[in-house]
């Protein structure tokens, strides 16, 4: 099986550097730019509107309909960045997301290696059972999680949310990493063992650098799904570990919703994601195929 | 398959097992536990057998929610999969614009679910939203909080906005893996654009498209936060999907028994459909490898 994936991998490399772009373009109709342009416009408009609102004062938002801020203000952002009860939400979110990413990837690495290299009793069933956890609706787990973490005294801590998110991130990380590890020829393992490397030494020193892009992709996905999830993180926290996405709901005050601050908070939740995407942009396509291309 | 038979590999899987047992098996057993018991408060529980399951199977409420959910997921798949393929076929293959497209397209995927809801809630409002305001000034009577059809359209367009990129990125990855020789052969045969798509691109994308359909099915079937923020399940119950109904029942009304029975049946439906997809997918994987 390793042979098959190696040949595909090298085929991609050959064509990637060769005549691909030029000859492909003959097959791409002229409408491409229009299709992509319209699609990107569709994606960007709602986000533009959010950014636009975040730079307006509330009286301008409610008083008149303007396509761009007439009276540009950064006051909404200032409100958020100077108030600990606001910006601690970002800190909380980042803490549990990073914890979750580290835990998920760390436990998924050896397991993915086992699935990609060995056949053992019950391996296929085990793999599917792991995947079923990715399929479990968070709504099913919300209440039991609440009771479980309350009873072990972890309620409203970062680690509780990080562990809860492992429910869907660990299976995903195993799935992605297994796909990438399959592409590494087994001869490398065997040679290393003959050369006298122990398993741990080989794994950290030789194997992990080989699948570095896979680890990056897995970490990206763990980050992504932990960052966007709200149902579980909101159920498991009250004050100390409350994520920013849950804090946003409090803009609904007695005098109506504070739209400007709400929009600014929304914009700030998009920023970390955008930064992460920028760093992994060259691996995104392969990553979304979970290493199976 | 030339994998080595080695049962000691279990030790490598052990950390995952312990972690997932803690975060999945224990909570799932709690749910099973509730589903067969009744309570009158005070932490006193009585054996109820399969009564809750029988109740739920005869409850219109659950069947209606399931029906809405099935229609929603079907519409989502019918729109997002072809649209995603279309976008992927038209994406630039390399250079700056390819990176640019990838980054912009991945952006909606990294926005927290409730912020997605908030964005569309604002965007669709007639008084302050660009979409709502534009539609209103065109004379279209649009109000997603009171008109069921408008609410459905809003929720579906939102989901298309949110997730089509996932399908597109997967399909794009599949397209990138097609060797140039295939296209050359097609040119020599003077194959039409459609033939190239049907006999070269589609078969090569099959694997990743199955992943895309599987992910989109699972995630649309458990959608909660986005429609909840935008419509709150309303107007009436028209956008109350399974998860929204479940949370309402379990946390809002604290009907633990019925909610637990509901959960288990819900999970089983997802499991069944996903198992079919997964079997097809692994069979394809194996075919690829032996080829």
TrEMBL record, chain A:
Domain ABC transmembrane type-1: 90-280
Membrane topology: Multi-pass membrane protein
GO cellular component terms attached to this protein's record: plasma membrane
GO biological process: transmembrane transport
TM region(s), chain numbering: 27-51, 94-115, 127-146, 158-181, 202-228, 259-280
Pfam families, alphabetized: BPD_transp_1 (PF00528)
Main location: membrane
Localization terms from the record: Cell membrane
PROSITE patterns: ABC_TM1 (PS50928)
Keywords: Cell membrane, Membrane, Transmembrane, Transmembrane helix, Transport
Protein family according to the UniProt entry: Belongs to the binding-protein-dependent transport system permease family.
Protein's UniProt name: ABC sugar (Glycerol) transporter, inner membrane subunit
Source species: Pseudooceanicola batsensis (strain ATCC BAA-863 / DSM 15984 / KCTC 12145 / HTCC2597)
Automatic annotation (TrEMBL), chain B:
Keywords: Membrane, Transmembrane, Transmembrane helix, Transport
PROSITE patterns the record matches: ABC_TM1
Membrane topology: Multi-pass membrane protein
GO biological process: transmembrane transport
KW Transmembrane (keyword) present: yes
Cell compartment(s), UniProt: Cell membrane
GO cellular component entries: plasma membrane
Primary location group: membrane
One matching Pfam family: BPD_transp_1
Lineage top rank: taxon: Bacteria
InterPro entries in UniProt: MetI-like, MetI-like_sf, Sugar_ABC_transporter
Family matches, as CDD domains: TM_PBP2 (cd06261)
Regions crossing the membrane: 12-36, 70-89, 96-123, 151-175, 196-218, 259-281
The keyword Phosphoprotein is annotated on this UniProt entry: no
Domain called ABC transmembrane type-1: residue spans: 66-277
Family: Belongs to the binding-protein-dependent transport system permease family.
Protein name: ABC sugar (Glycerol) transporter, inner membrane subunit
């Amino acid at each position: 099986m390793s042979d098959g994936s190696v040949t595909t991998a090298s085929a991609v490399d050959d064509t990637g550097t060769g005549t691909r772009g030029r000859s492909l373009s003959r097959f791409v109709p002229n409408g491409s730019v229009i299709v992509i342009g319209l699609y990107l416009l569709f994606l960007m408009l709602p986000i533009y509107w959010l950014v636009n609102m975040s730079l307006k004062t509330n009286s301008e938002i409610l008083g008149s309909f303007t396509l761009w801020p007439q009276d540009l203000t950064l006051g909404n952002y200032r409100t958020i960045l100077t108030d600990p009860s606001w910006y601690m939400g970002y800190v909380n979110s980042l803490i549990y997301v990073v914890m979750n990413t580290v835990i998920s990837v760390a436990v998924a690495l050896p397991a993915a290696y086992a699935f990609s290299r060995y056949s053992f009793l019950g391996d296929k069933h085990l793999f599917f059972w792991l995947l079923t956890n990715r399929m479990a609706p968070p709504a099913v787990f919300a209440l039991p999680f609440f009771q479980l973490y309350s009873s072990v005294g972890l309620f409203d801590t970062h680690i509780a949310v990080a562990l809860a998110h492992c429910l869907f991130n660990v299976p995903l990380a195993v799935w992605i990493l297994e796909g990438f590890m399959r592409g590494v020829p087994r001869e490398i393992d065997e040679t290393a063992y003959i050369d006298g490397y122990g398993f741990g030494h080989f794994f950290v020193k030789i194997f992990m650098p080989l699948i570095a892009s896979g680890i990056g992709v897995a970490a990206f996905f763990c980050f992504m799904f932990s960052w966007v999830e709200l149902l579980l993180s909101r159920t498991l926290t009250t004050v100390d570990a409350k994520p920013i996405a849950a804090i946003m709901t409090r803009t609904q005050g007695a005098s109506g919703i504070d739209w400007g601050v709400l929009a600014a908070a929304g914009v700030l939740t998009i920023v970390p994601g955008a930064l992460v995407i920028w760093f992994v942009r060259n691996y995104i396509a392969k990553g979304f195929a979970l290493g199976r291309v | 398959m030339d994998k080595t038979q080695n049962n000691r590999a279990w030790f490598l899987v052990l950390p995952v097992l312990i972690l997932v047992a803690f975060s999945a098996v224990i909570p799932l057993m709690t749910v099973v536990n509730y589903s067969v018991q009744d309570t009158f408060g005070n932490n006193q529980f009585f054996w109820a057998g399969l009564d809750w399951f029988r109740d739920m199977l005869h409850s219109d409420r659950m069947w209606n929610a399931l029906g809405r959910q099935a229609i929603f997921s079907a519409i989502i798949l019918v729109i997002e999969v072809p649209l995603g393929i279309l976008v992927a076929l038209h994406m630039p293959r390399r250079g700056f614009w390819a990176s640019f497209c990838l980054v912009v397209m991945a952006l909606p995927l990294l926005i927290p679910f409730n912020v997605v809801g908030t964005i569309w809630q604002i965007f669709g409002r007639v008084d302050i939203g660009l979409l709502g305001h534009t539609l209103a000034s065109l004379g279209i009577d649009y109000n997603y909080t009171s008109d069921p059809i408008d609410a459905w359209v809003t929720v579906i367009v939102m989901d298309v906005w949110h997730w089509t990129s996932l399908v597109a990125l997967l399909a794009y990855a599949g397209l990138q893996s097609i060797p140039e020789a295939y296209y050359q052969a097609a040119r020599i045969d003077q194959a039409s654009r459609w033939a190239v798509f049907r006999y070269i691109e589609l078969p090569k994308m099959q694997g990743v498209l199955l992943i895309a359909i599987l992910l989109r099915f699972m995630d649309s079937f458990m959608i909660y936060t986005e429609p909840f923020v935008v419509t709150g399940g309303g107007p009436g119950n028209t956008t109350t999907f399974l998860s929204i109904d479940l949370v309402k029942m379990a946390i809002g009304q604290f009907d633990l028994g019925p909610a637990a029975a509901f959960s288990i049946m819900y999970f089983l439906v997802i499991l069944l459909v996903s198992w079919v997809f997964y079997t097809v997918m692994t069979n394809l994987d194996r075919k690829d490898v032996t080829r």
